[in-house]
Amino acid sequence: MKKIIALIPIVLLVLVAACSNDKVTPQDRFDQYVKHWNEQEFNEMYNMSTTTSTEKYAKEDYVERYKNIYEDLNIDNLNITYDKLSEEKMETAMEKGTAQFPFTVEMETIAGPITFDYKATLIVEGEEENANWFVKWDPGFIFPAIKDGGEIGLSNIKPERGEILDRNQLPLALNDTVHNVGIVPGKLGSNPEKAKQKISDLLGMSIESINKNLDAGWVEPDLFVPLKKVPKSAEQTLNQLWEVSGVTERKVTGRVYPYGESLGHLVGFTGPVTAEELEEMDSGAYSANDIIGKRGLELLYEDKLRGEAGVEITVSKENEEDTILAEKPVKNGEDVVTTIDADLQMKIYESYDGKAGTAAAIHPKTGETLALVSSPSFNSNEMGFGISQSRRDELQNNPKQPLLNRFTSTYAPGSTFKPVTAAIGLNNESIIPGEGIEINGLTWSNGEGWGNYQVRRVSESNGPVDVTNALVRSDNIYFAKKAVEMGSEKYVNGLQQFGFAKDFPFEYPIETSTISSNGKLNDEVLLADTSYGQGEIQMSALHLAMAYTPFLNKGNLLKPTILADAEKSQVWQEKLITGEQATLIQEALRNVVAAPNGTAKGAHIDDLAISGKTGTAELKKSGEESGPENGWFVGYPTKNQDILISMMIENTEKQGGSAFTVGKVTELLKAVK
């Protein structure tokens, strides 16, 4: 009687809703049942089940099972449809007290859509005025495959991460076999603390971390306890580890970076996703055990590299093959093929020999980025396989800042910027080819408004100075005078045409090059200083390299690219100078190296003609007579013009200034000719 009382409100509701007569029909009841089901109201569905169903399945188990399955499988867009009974079948059902409704269930799941057909039988239970229709429920209503038992399984198939390749298909980041180094506790020998100390030193792990792994609840004396993954390239470390009692390994797949430090900043590394990262991402995009790009290209192209996990929903029964209910195939990550030349990148990085600086190498005719170097750097393998806190502290406290990505940063370009000023002046006709101006002495000031400030040049001129002579001799006064002559508005407009104060059109995030702290040059001294790459002007090594492309492409400033399948020779800004003006600057850049009074005589060698421009950026503070200097050189082969290197080395004031950098670039161009 308990159950009949509980159903009275439902019966009354249906009786009120019935329009043909005052008897409840199986159609009315199944309509109501399906409504509850579509809305996932499992309590109400249970209350509409037959006595035999409720005796077999407790309400709590029934409701929890439905909820858990629907939640675990991310069931959404549930839709149950069926054909209504004809009038004849309705009469027969009312007479016999039983009715059948074939129905179709459609749903979206984590593994894709599932559709199935099943049949519901309704019977009358109760007597006289308390009689009503109830559904004979069984697990087949969830999925027909589990009607007679079975376990629903959910399997995730992890995708294989795409690899990062250079222009020659050499791997910059790949999936390879690595050594998962660990300990069998019972075999640590007679002095386990001594063994753990040696393991700690070799793996860069703290004793506390090792003990934490060994103290896990599942650990047994004869079980393998993993500690850290080590790449095959760390052969010396591995050989020393194998000598320690109790140390063993399991071969697993891991992310490996063959070029180590030379590509650390550019390629980046991967690591386990953190709780903070999970909170910031779309729900379900990652799980706690997933690997994610942390820096560099690994982070930039994460969506392309990671792929999509496969999902399989199955029903398992003893002594039977699994039944697949739904399957979403795994989608492995895509490879990212770059324009980078890994060997060139490594040569440039090694040329720094630990000194701080940055360099960019491009193909000046196509805009392809061949190298992006930041020195010193970190080893992506060390970062990816787990770096100790002491080692991280060592990197963070290093005065050369190996964790700073210098190729994304901006710097004062010094005199390497003078060809840009020359181009701006030639374009707005404030500089006329062959027209010289008289400059006397080594210093110049433009009157009382400048106070005691004077522009200084390195050498005096013999006769009038024109733009070619000024570029060859790197005459600060000539460019300062010309910038003041053309005025702030024209000069700033020219700088903007060269990409200053604009987003840099490159997939890899590079800082925007700036004209000054406020974007203006209203102060005449600042205008003068900017003309020769000092003042407050800042640009990246890559932007500086691209700023030379108009001289080699009849006035067109190219866009840099880093993906191998990107369109080549894309134009960022058109016709900044004429073809004749571009030729004039090209010839001047050759004479910077080849002429007796050129500033890059160190690049004048017999077996390779080189063109370029030197630059020394002084970093002294106001009131100081001297300070640190960054030595710059932008150089390229005069004939082939298939590579251009823009290089800066920090603190060259005691090493010959920009001449030191000239030597480095010259050796690199010789090595790749």
Which structural traits does this protein have?
673 residues; five-stranded antiparallel β-sheet; disordered N terminus
Shape: elongated
Average predicted confidence as pLDDT: 92
Question: What's the total number of strands?
Answer: 23
Q: What's the assembly state of these chains?
A: single chain
Unreliable stretches covering 5 or more consecutive residues? 1-21
Question: Hey, roughly how much beta strand do the residues contain?
Answer: 15-25%
* Main beta-sheet strand count, sense and barrel state: 5 strands, mixed
Q: Classify the secondary structure makeup into a structural class.
A: alpha+beta
Rg measurement, Å? 37 Å
H/I helix tally: 25
What percent of the residues sit in helical stretches (DSSP H or I)? 25-40%
Distance between the termini: 97 Å
Describe what is shown at a glance:
33% of the residues lie in helices and 21% in strands. The protein is built from 25 helices and 23 strands.
Describe the structure.
This protein has 673 residues and is of the alpha+beta class. Helix content is 33%, strand content 21%. Strands 6, 7, 8, 9 and 14 form a 5-stranded mixed sheet that branches. A 5-stranded antiparallel sheet has the order 16-15-23-22-21, with helices on both faces. A hairpin with a 6-residue loop joins strand 22 (629-637) and strand 23 (644-649). Helix 19 (476-486) packs across helix 21 (524-531). The model is unreliable at 1-21 (pLDDT under 50).
